[in-house]
Automatic annotation (TrEMBL):
Membrane spanning residue stretches: 230-253
Gene this chain is encoded by: NME8
Pfam families: NDK
SUPFAM superfamilies with a match to the protein in the record: Nucleoside diphosphate kinase, NDK
Name by which UniProt lists this protein: Thioredoxin domain-containing protein 3
GO molecular function, one term: nucleoside diphosphate kinase activity
Length: 452
């Protein structure tokens, strides 16, 4: 019970507010402007423009490095169930594993990868050994923005030059084990990129002359309300994922050196200083009698990363290329995945067990096509992937297209199912239907089962 309050007045206020909300929802009234959120500006990270430019070459997103290596875990270690252990040691040594595929290597692949050893007397026997069982082919990167390869070279060199009794040891490795012994990696950057193209033709490393970078741009409420035409400007950037958060427009802008480029277009953050440069956007779009600048841009690539992760968090989904499509259209489908902007966080080729197929399709148990579906899904290797992107679950479903390829051809002719599906059962790809399913499937396919 509330005492000492003007109940009729409170009732009136609440009723008025509800009425107002209804009018806003019906589009009859505009919402009153809310107090502006002030974002930390460049001052929070006192870095010069030069430094920002300097840092900008570590292309965004997510501090990925430009150099990748291909590593091979040999059949004896795979047979002995040591793959996870070796992968963990690679990670503990500061490397990141971008992809992992279990494969039977062909003689050609072995001879190409180990070309540097071809003069060794027992090379043919070694090739036969490598063909004796499945290997794990890894894409390895260094986590920080530094080159992955030199560290492998260092390890290799140290290993070769050291006394035989004193192999280099990394923490956690047995005396006779070095990373070089555990997982073969090529010696040079040139070899690395050649092998990457050879083993993972569709793995996109973003190695361009002008690496693409992203930055966050914010158009503050007052300007947004007054100058909507300003948005035309963003055609000069590749403005992705426009999102309205109340009355503020938040954009992820993409181009080479996006952070420093956007900052230089904005001009100084202090309006008085900006006005000295009338070409600057902050000067052009200053609002009379409003002392705050109307446009925000990330100060540095690392600030951009933090801000973008906050406003556009990356999502993961579970995706699978079904057995018949994996056999016939794998490369084309992987290409479409890349072109749609997904990063492939994990990938492996594996034939589903009945248990796995039943797990992925448990909602369909009892349906007339269930048995046929499980049989179909277990008939050969599938390509199993974790895909990352903003809004990944929905985006992947959109890229897959409708379940039935006949419908897909009509409504989404560019979708994977329109282009590569055979029929409603054999429809090329699978994707989780929501984030919870995706998490469970990822755990099921790459967590517990991998550890077995
Ligand atoms: N009527 C049907 N006849 C035969 N197979 C079917 C039929 N309906 C669905 N399927 C199979 O079952 C799978 C799961 O069906 P669901 O309705 O969940 O489709 P989806 O969500 O588009 O596909 P997925 O779950 O594979 O991503 C389909 O991908 C397809 O292989």
């Amino acid at each position: 019970m509330v005492k000492g309050v003007n109940a009729p007045l409170i009732t009136k206020i609440v009723t008025d507010l509800v009425q107002e909300e209804r009018k806003i929802a019906a589009g009859e009234k505009e919402r009153a402007e809310v107090e502006e959120i002030v974002f930390p500006e460049e001052g929070s990270s006192e870095e010069s423009d030069e430094e920002a430019v300097e840092e900008a070459h570590y292309f965004f997103p997510f501090s990925e490095v430009l150099t990748y290596s291909v590593g091979i875990i040999k059949p004896d270690d795979v047979l002995a169930g040591r793959v996870e252990e070796i992968k963990n040691k690679i990670k503990d040594a500061g490397f990141d594993i971008k992809a992992d595929e279990k494969r039977m290597l062909t003689e050609e692949q072995i001879r190409v990868f180990y070309a540097r050893k071809k003069e060794e007397p027992d090379f043919d026997a070694f090739v036969q050994f490598m063909k004796s069982g499945p290997c794990h082919v890894l894409i390895i990167t260094k986590k920080e923005a530094s080159d992955a390869i030199p560290q492998w070279i260092d390890l290799h060199k140290t290993n070769e030059s050291a006394e035989p009794e004193e192999p280099i040891n990394l923490p956690g490795l047995k005396e006779t084990e070095s990373l070089v012994n555990l997982c073969d990696v090529e010696d040079s950057i040139e070899d690395a990129s050649r092998h990457l193209a050879f083993f993972f033709p569709n793995f996109h490393t973003n190695k361009g002359k002008h690496p693409v970078e992203r930055t966050l741009a914010i158009i503050r409420p007052t300007l947004l309300k007054e100058r909507r035409k300003f948005l035309v400007f963003f055609f000069f950037f590749n403005a992705l994922f426009p999102m309205y958060s109340g009355p503020t427009l938040i954009l992820a802008l993409t181009r080479e050196n996006a952070v420093s480029h956007w900052r230089s277009l904005l001009g100084p953050k202090i309006l008085e200083e900006a006005k000295e440069n009338p070409e600057s956007l902050r000067a052009q779009y200053a609002i009379e009698n409003v002392p705050i600048n109307q446009l925000h841009g990330s100060s540095t690539p690392s600030d951009a990363q933090k801000e973008l992760e906050f406003f556009f968090p990356e999502e993961q989904t579970f995706a699978l290329i079904k057995p018949d499509a994996a056999k016939t259209h794998k490369d084309e489908i992987m290409k479409k995945v890349k072109e749609a902007g997904f990063s492939i966080s994990k990938v492996k080729e594996q034939a589903l067990t009945r248990e796995m197929a039943a797990h992925f399709y448990k909602d369909h148990e009892g349906k007339p096509f269930y048995e046929e579906l499980v049989n179909f899904m277990t008939q050969g290797p599938s390509v199993i992937m974790v895909l990352s992107k903003e809004n990944a679950v929905e985006e992947w479903r959109k890229l897959m297209g409708p379940t039935n390829p006949e419908e897909a051809k009509k409504t989404s002719p560019k979708s994977i199912r329109a282009q590569f599906a055979h029929d409603i059962l054999s429809n090329a790809v699978h994707g989780s239907s929501n984030v919870e399913h995706a998490e469970r499937s990822i755990q099921f396919a790459f967590g517990e089962l991998d550890a077995d």
